[in-house]
Amino acid sequence: MVSKQSFITEARREQIIKAAIDVICEIGYANVSLPQIAKKANISTGLISYHFSGKDDLINHTLMYLSQQEWSYISGKVGPKQTPTEKLIAFIEASIAYQVTHQVNNMALVEIVFNARTPERVPYYKIEDNEKDALYELLEEILCKGQESKEFCVFNPEVASTIIKGAISESMLNSKVNFEEYSEELIKIVLKMVK
To answer: Least buried of 41, 57, 109, 150, by fewest C-beta within 10 Å?
Structure first.
C-alpha cells in the first residue's frame, strides 16, 4: 500500500516535472533554470532542490517521465489488439495521435535529447546505449510475431522498425501535415511493405 506521504511526494515531483516541460517548451532547453521552473510551478527553488539533486537530475527525470508517458499511451492502445496486423495498425495510429495530442511533451523531448549533455559534456543523442528504446522493441516484437505467424512476409524487422519509427517521427517535424491523412497513408504503405 502506498503511503499518503509518498503519494504527496510523487505528486509534487510530477508537478515540478510538468513545470519543467512547459518552461523548456516556452524558452528552450539552453535558457532553462531552476528558478524559472519554480516560478512556473508556483513553488520555491528550495522545494525543487528537496526533490531533485539539481538541474541535471531534474532533466533526467523529465526525460524518463516523457518516455514513460509516450510508452503508456501507445502500449495501452496496442495491448488489447489480437493479431500482429491489428497491433501494427494500432501502433502507427497511436504513435501519430500521440504526436498531435501531446505536442508540448514532444517538443520538450526533442529539446532535451538534442541540447542536454552528460556530466562528460556528451550530447544525449550521441550516447551509445546498447538498450533499444522500449517503443522500438515493441514495434520490432510486433513485426517478428507477424513473421512467425506468417501474417507478414520475410524482411529484416530491425530495418523495418527503423523505417516506421522514422516516418512517425518525421510527421512531428512537418507542420503542414494532416495527421489523419498521414496516418492512413503510412498504414497503407507499411502494410504493403510487410505483407
So the answer is: 150
